[in-house]
C-alpha cells in the first residue's frame, strides 16, 4: 500500500515514480476499519459523481446560492460562481453588495445576481440576512466567503449564517476569517459544513503557526475535522480531505501551476456545484478536490508558469466528462 511519505512533501519530491503491487496481503486485512488513510483514484471519484439524465432540465441539476465578493475582490465571486456552473449546477445566484451589483452583471453572464443591503462601509451588512435566508430556502447549498471582505458587520453576518442556515454550507476565505475564535459555531450548523482552508487560514483558526501545520498536515486536518465536526479540505500539495470520524483522503491531482490567485475560489464553486446536484458533503469535497486538480493538470499541459485560475474554468467540462464516462463504464462492469 502507498506510504504517507510517498505522498506528502518533502518526501514526495524524492519518491519518483512508484507503483502499488500485490504482495499477497489478506483481503480482510486491507478492509479493516483501522486503515483510515486513503488515496483518491479516478475509479473512486468516477463512481461518486452525479449522473445527468438525458431528459434533465436546469431545475434537476441543483441551485447554488453564493454570498461573495467586495470592492476590489469581485473576481473571486465571479470565479466561484462560474465554477459552480462549470461543475454541472443548473442555476447559480450570487448575492453581492448592492453598489457592486451592476459591476457583477457585466462581469458574469450565466450567473444571476441579487443586490444585498450594505453596511456603512459598503460591504454586505447584517440587514442582508433575511434575503440570504429566503434565497437559501430555494437552494441546495450556500457558498460563503470568496472575496467577501473583512468588515466587522460582514464578519458578524457570516457567523449568523453559520449558526442559522438551514442548507449545507461551503465556507472559504473571508468566511473562515470570520470564524477565528468562533469555531464553536460550526458544531451548531444544521448540516456538517465543508471548510476549505489553506495553511494560513488554518493557522488563524487553530492558533498554530503555518510551519506547525505544514509539518503535521495529517494530524492537524484530522484534529480540526473532529473538533469542529466539519469536513475539512486542507489545501496544499497535496490537498487533504479530513472527516470527523478520523478518515483522511489524500488527493493525487493538481500541480504547482495552480499556486495562483483564484484557484481556491474555483474549488469552492466546484464543491458547491456538486453538493447542489445531490452529492453528500463528503462526496462533494472528494470529487471537487480531485476534479479541480485534474482540470489544473489539463490546463498545465503546455506549462505551469502563467496558468490562471480562469483556465481551470475552461478545462472543467472536459475532465468532468472524462470522469463521468469512466463512472458509467465502472457501473456497467459492476453489473
Automatic annotation (TrEMBL):
PROSITE patterns linked: YJEF_C_2, YJEF_C_3, YJEF_N
GO MF annotation, one: NAD(P)HX epimerase activity
Coiled-coil stretches noted in the UniProt entry, renumbered to this chain: none
Cofactor needs: K(+); Mg(2+)
EC class: lyase
Domain YjeF C-terminal: 41-323
Chain residues that bind (6S)-NADPHX: 76, 147, 198, 265
Keywords: ATP-binding, Kinase, Lyase, NAD, NADP, Nucleotide-binding, Transferase
Residues in YjeF N-terminal domain copies: 1-31
UniProt keyword Nucleotide-binding present: yes
Catalyses which reaction(s): (6S)-NADHX + ADP = AMP + phosphate + NADH + H(+); (6S)-NADPHX + ADP = AMP + phosphate + NADPH + H(+)
Recorded superkingdom: Bacteria
Chain residues that bind AMP: 235-239, 264
Matches recorded under CDD domains: YXKO-related
GTP-binding in keyword set: no
Entry's EC annotation: 4.2.1.136
One example of a Gene Ontology biological process annotation: nicotinamide nucleotide metabolic process
Family matches, as InterPro entries: Carbohydrate_kinase_pred_CS (IPR017953), CARKD (IPR000631), Ribokinase-like (IPR029056), YjeF_N_dom (IPR004443)
Family per record: In the C-terminal section; belongs to the NnrD/CARKD family. Belongs to the NnrD/CARKD family.
HAMAP family: NADHX_dehydratase (MF_01965)
Record's function text: Catalyzes the dehydration of the S-form of NAD(P)HX at the expense of ADP, which is converted to AMP. Together with NAD(P)HX epimerase, which catalyzes the epimerization of the S- and R-forms, the enzyme allows the repair of both epimers of NAD(P)HX, a damaged form of NAD(P)H that is a result of enzymatic or heat-dependent hydration. Bifunctional enzyme that catalyzes the epimerization of the S- and R-forms of NAD(P)HX and the dehydration of the S-form of NAD(P)HX at the expense of ADP, which is converted to AMP. This allows the repair of both epimers of NAD(P)HX, a damaged form of NAD(P)H that is a result of enzymatic or heat-dependent hydration.
PANTHER family in UniProt: ATP-DEPENDENT (S)-NAD(P)H-HYDRATE DEHYDRATASE, ATP-DEPENDENT (S)-NAD(P)H-HYDRATE DEHYDRATASE FAMILY MEMBER
Protein's name according to its UniProt entry: ADP-dependent (S)-NAD(P)H-hydrate dehydratase
Organism: Propionispora vibrioides
Amino acid at each position: 500500500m502507498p506510504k504517507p511519505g510517498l505522498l506528502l512533501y518533502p518526501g514526495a519530491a524524492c519518491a519518483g515514480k512508484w507503483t502499488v503491487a500485490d504482495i499477497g496481503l489478506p483481503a480482510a486485512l486491507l478492509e479493516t476499519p483501522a486503515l483510515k488513510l486513503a488515496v483518491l483514484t479516478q475509479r473512486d471519484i468516477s463512481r461518486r459523481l452525479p449522473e445527468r439524465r438525458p431528459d434533465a432540465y436546469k431545475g434537476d441539476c441543483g441551485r447554488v446560492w453564493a454570498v461573495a465578493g467586495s470592492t476590489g475582490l469581485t473576481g473571486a465571486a465571479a470565479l466561484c460562481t462560474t465554477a459552480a456552473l462549470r461543475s454541472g449546477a443548473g442555476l447559480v445566484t450570487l448575492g453581492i453588495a448592492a453598489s457592486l451589483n451592476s459591476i457583477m452583471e457585466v462581469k458574469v453572464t450565466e450567473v444571476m445576481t441579487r443586490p444585498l443591503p450594505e453596511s456603512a462601509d459598503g460591504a454586505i451588512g447584517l440587514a442582508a440576512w433575511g434575503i440570504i435566508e429566503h434565497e437559501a430556502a430555494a437552494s441546495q447549498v450556500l457558498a460563503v466567503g470568496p472575496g467577501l471582505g473583512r468588515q466587522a458587520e460582514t464578519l458578524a453576518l457570516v457567523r449568523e449564517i453559520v449558526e442559522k442556515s438551514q442548507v449545507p454550507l461551503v465556507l472559504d476565505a473571508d468566511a473562515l476569517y470570520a470564524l477565528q475564535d468562533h469555531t464553536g459555531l460550526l458544531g451548531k450548523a444544521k448540516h456538517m459544513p465543508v471548510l476549505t482552508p489553506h495553511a494560513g487560514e488554518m493557522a488563524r483558526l487553530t492558533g498554530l503557526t503555518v510551519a506547525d501545520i505544514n509539518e503535521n498536515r495529517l494530524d492537524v486536518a484530522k484534529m480540526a475535522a473532529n473538533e469542529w465536526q466539519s469536513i475539512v479540505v486542507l489545501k496544499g500539495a497535496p490537498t487533504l480531505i479530513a472527516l470527523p470520524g478520523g478518515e483522511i483522503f489524500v488527493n493525487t491531482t493538481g500541480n504547482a501551476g495552480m499556486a495562483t490567485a483564484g484557484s481556491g475560489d474555483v474549488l469552492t464553486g466546484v464543491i458547491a456545484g456538486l453538493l447542489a446536484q445531490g452529492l453528500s458533503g463528503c462526496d462533494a469535497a472528494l470529487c471537487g478536490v480531485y476534479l479541480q486538480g485534474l482540470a489544473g493538470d489539463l490546463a498545465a499541459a503546455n506549462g505551469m508558469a502563467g496558468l490562471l485560475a480562469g483556465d481551470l474554468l475552461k478545462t472543467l467540462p472536459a475532465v468532468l466528462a472524462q470522469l463521468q464516462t469512466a463512472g458509467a463504464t465502472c457501473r456497467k462492469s459492476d453489473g
